[in-house]
Amino acid sequence: MAELKVVVEADGGSRGNPGPAGYGAVVREAATGEVLLERFASVGVNTNNVAEYAGLVAGLEAALELGATHVEVRMDSKLVVEQMSGRWQIKNAGLRPLAARAADLAGRFAAVTFDWIPRARNAAADALANRAMDEAAGKPVRDTIAKEVVPAAPKPRKSWAPPPLDEATRLILVRHGQTAYTSQGRYSGRGDVPLSDEGEAQAMAAAGRVAVLSRDVAAVVTSPLSRCTRTAELIAAELGGVEVTVLADLIECDFGRWEGMTFADVQERWPDEMNAWLDSTAVAPPGGESFQEVGERVQRALRTVLSAYAQKVVVLVSHVSPIKLILRDALAAGDDFLHRLYLDAAGVSTLDVWPDGGIAVRTVNETAHLR
């Protein structure tokens, strides 16, 4: 297939922040600068940042429709460019779904770059965003656009019935079997603690459950730690020798100096640090990794998996923290969800993900196979 390299110029604005908001996006042929497609729409009452992310999503969707293979995104939003480049954390929970949608779209191209440009060089997208806000307010529209503008595609209709399953990628999430640390209630992060005998039995039981859920598994993708790779091997064997792929981003949270300690140990020695960690996903254990950082790499792992195994069934073998974060985002839940969900060793959860970003969580922490 021939390469199509495009430039996406995107912008968004809000008259009030929050206030009436809209976005604009322009897709140009990279070599000539010719406008291939334009999009604009109102996003109701929202903030500048939400409108800017909406413009980015619309621009990437338009590039995908054109069959683009390489995309250079240009925006005058430093926040969006830095967050999408992975240099800044996404602390605003309201932006995470839009950022995740943009990241999912970006993962479908051969290459995507994000570049900041001055507002003066983003005039076309800015004009579209203002046109969207003017039209929403019933104001006369300035004649600033010579070419036909293609309206943004309508959002998928909400329904109790999900789209056809043959369009979805099914993810079967499996926590590894029990280890010595699991049974003792110790923080087990980057330490390579192997499965116990009980953990081996649990992993085999989980393998049987996965086989019941689907025999048509394309791959088993796993964290690099042995408690996961062993669980993955047993699942793959039960499925008849399915390919096992190690994905480093599925590794457990780095608990730093808390590694190998119990909750009581940590509470006694680091009470202030423990309380701060429990209160915010942006806080890391001493010498460790925050849940925000874990969430960012887990989303990166999901983009890789969804790109490589679109519309197939994939088993992901990982740890408590990554699986909780996947389920939190899938359910559009807040951070308190992380402390309210319990995941058993060798528990199984299932969700379907559609190309338009739709998600259906089917099961959470199945454990009947362990009884």
UniProtKB/TrEMBL annotation:
Superkingdom of source: Bacteria
Pfam families named in the record: His_Phos_1, RVT_3
GO molecular function: nucleic acid binding; phosphatase activity; RNA-DNA hybrid ribonuclease activity
Residues in RNase H type-1 domain copies: 2-142
Binding site for substrate: 227
Catalytic-site annotation from UniProt: 176, 252
One GO location term (cellular component): cytoplasm
SMART domains, sorted: PGAM
Signal peptide coordinates: none
SUPFAM superfamilies: Phosphoglycerate mutase-like, Ribonuclease H-like
PROSITE patterns the record matches: RNASE_H_1
Xref: CDD domains: HP_PGM_like, RNase_HI_like
PANTHER family referenced in this protein's UniProt entry, alphabetically: BROAD-SPECIFICITY PHOSPHATASE YOR283W-RELATED, HISTIDINE PHOSPHATASE FAMILY PROTEIN-RELATED
The protein, known as: Bifunctional RNase H/acid phosphatase
